[in-house]
Amino acid sequence: MTASIPPGWYEDPSAPGSERWWDGAQWTASTRARAQGEIPPPPIGAPPAAGQVGYPQGGYPGGYQPVGPPVGAPRPGRGKAIGLSVLALVVVGGIIAGLIVVLGGDGDGKKTVATDGTLTDPTTGLTVPRLKGWVVPDPDEPADQAVERPCPSKSSTRTSGAAAETALQAERKCYRAGLTLDTRKADNLEELVAGLKKDVTGSKGRITLDTLELDKPIKVDGHAAYVLRAKVKGKPEDLSLDSDTAWAQAVVIAEKNEDGEFPCVLLKLEISASAPDKATLDTVLKGIKVGTPQPSESAS
Q: For residue 96, what pLDDT is reported?
């Protein structure tokens, strides 16, 4: 087949002592002379160059290798090669982009969030990942978790009572992040989501919305749900954190319990060098499992 012979200079079958350019499909009009003794004899059965058709048979004539196109001649196949290279880059780029979307990464090189089993909340019936390094502040809320931080001293604002301040400091708990499982009462999911959006920006406008990253219905463990994720700004005291920016995420399962309330997973992370990685948001979102709430003592 003609496609098996690559473009190049070959001995001209119709003019011994010269070479003719083969463009990969046929002989061209480009010829050149070579010094005596450097051209191998024409191959047996080589087609004539008349009409510029045919191709060398049996591979390269006499083992002679092509040395390149004639001066000014286009390089056959170059456009196709460039096209294939571009296509390869597009395909590889698409695969990488797809992996980023599927895995929830954002390409910032931050470390993976570590977990250590799961925790279940009996009131909501929800199970969440146990985040490694987080603590459970309240034994009565076995799935709630937080990242503790040193509480700022209040001594500078007090004129007396150093002993009382020391006792107060020992009792206070301050956090960089917190995860809470709760239930919210509403007539329907739309009403609940609208209320959560108001909570994100604060009841008195002291906290402002910077970015609403997620605001959509989703599936959680095969159940209909809704997720809100926002970056918010405010004074550290209004955010109850050290930072003036934070990530807030609310995941609502669209199934009321026996009390007519929707189970929720609420998560807040301050944005600082000492805070947990933002990937914690995805780790919690993807790790939620929906179960059956246990009846409360008042209902029994």
A: 33
Q: What is the pLDDT of residues 199-247, one digit of tens each?
A: 765 555 688 888 889 999 999 999 999 999 999 998 888 888 889 999 9
Distance CA 108, CA 34 (A): 60
- Structure token pair of residue 285: 């979102």
Instruction: State how far the Cα of 178 lies from the Cα of 94, in Å rounded to an integer.
Output: 36
Beta partners for 242? none
Residues listed for the chain? 300
Task: Judge contact between 178 and 165, C-beta under 8 A.
Answer: no
Place of tokens 């990969």: 24
SS3 90: helix
Contacts of 95 (CB under 8 A, 6+ apart): none
C-alpha 129: how far from chain center? 20
- The pair of three-digit structure tokens given for residue 194, joined into one six-digit string: 């609208």
